[in-house]
User: What shape does this take?
Amino acid sequence: MPQGDRSTESGGAQRRIGWLDSLKGLGMIAVTLYHSGPPQAVIRLITPWFLPVFYFAAGYVYKDAYSRTPFVFLKKRLRALYVPYVLWNLLYLCLHNLFLHLDLMSDKAGYLDWVASAYTWTDYPPIVRGILTMSGGEAMAGPLWFLTSLLTADLLFCGLGVVSTRIFRGREWVRALGVVAVFGVGYSNQQIVSFPIYLNYSAMAMVFIYVGFLYRRAEARIALGYLRALLAAVMLALLVSLGGSRAFLPGSDFSDPVLLIVTALAGIFVCLVLAKKLGRNRFVQYVGRNSLFLIATQFLAFKLVSLVQIEVYGYPHYMLGAFPVVSGSDMWWAAYLACAVLVPVGVKLSIDFASRSVRSWVVSR
Assistant: This one.
């Protein structure tokens, strides 16, 4: 859910791609909806595609030039994905014991069997090491696991590009074959060998990066319209209703990879049409441009609704430490969704305004 994806225009100038921001905005809202604890029918409908949308977006902005200058691409992706992952996790690490004191985290309520505990000085070195290697992190920054996967998938895709460009003189069939082979390795080891879960997942997710990459090449020849989007939505609903898991999430059932990919592509196509038809919807675009900020503050924003829910139902106050929400039943998921989108957006708007004001003051001096 990174920011900074731009299209290159003539003359070397760069500008944001409005519909791509909208696409990521739709994906971000779906991610927030998933975490808010909606009905199971909603979960089954959105989990096949809400993360593949971001891989698709990453593929769309991948340039052939990166295959010739991989270290430029590495530097760019480390700045966009690794640095925010580390900084947000270190921030929440510094606030961990304070959160525990305020019951925002608890040793009595957490996520499944996990509960929080106070850190001592001896706890910090291995935790920091886990953050720096992207192999661990703080619960409040839990959704940022996705940055690990996206960075891995990006680098795998760039590596295939380097091979096809430098060794096979840019033959596209080599990259296509490589994507299929890497997917196969990730899939087979998901079923047989216990590889690190994000490595397997990222290897399979690279398919959607390639789809986004190919879509940009063929964009002018692909007609988008509401009728096709409706047909894709119907196909998505039918595939989901067939039973079995179609969720593209780490640890999910990947026993039917073909249906998994087809279902995800149907969801991506629907979102693609909606994103392009939304035009200049400033709110959705703003959510997409700031998806990293929203996902990094999402669990913290949920606590506002959890606090209200605790007061309404008389739950013990330590339930505020439940992750990601206390309960999404009885339409509380809608409140969680609204709060975790609108509050971070409001905070980010305030930060942007303050930043512009400071810059204007500095320039005027």
